[in-house]
Amino acid sequence: MEAQSRDIEPKDPNTMKSLTATAALVLLSTATLAAEPAKDKDACLKTAVDLAEKAEKSGLADDKLVKIEEMLTKLEDHCEASRFAEAATVSTDIETTIGGK
Predict the structure, then answer these.
(1) Which letter, b or e, does each residue of 34-64 get, where b requires 16 or more Cβ atoms within 10 Å of its Cβ?
(2) Could you tell me the residue ranges of all domains in the chain?
(3) Residues 33, 37, 39, 40: is their CA dihedral positive or negative?
(4) pLDDT tens, position by position, for the chain (101 residues)?
(5) How far apart are CA 50 and CA 58, in angstroms?
């Protein structure tokens, strides 16, 4: 049996441009949201709790969970010291580690 090739290009060339632009905007907005620093300690610590829950539910290997736990401690330290920009960097690193499985 021969494999059949299917033409999956959109009929309207502007459709592909629109899809590409939309995908780029989604990626940029997601990166911006992940890197945006918290405005206060409570919001910062809530981010830490949310990330801990996400990591727990992710099914990661134990060695990754240990690494995330260490990063969460660092994140909480930054939150308590009102170093929100540093906390945002650590939270982005945690997200990356969770997503990288």
Answers:
(1) eeebbeeeeebbebbeebbeebeeeebeeeb
(2) 38-100
(3) positive
(4) 455 545 555 555 565 556 555 555 555 444 444 557 889 999 999 999 999 999 999 989 999 999 999 999 999 999 999 999 999 999 999 999 998 65
(5) 12
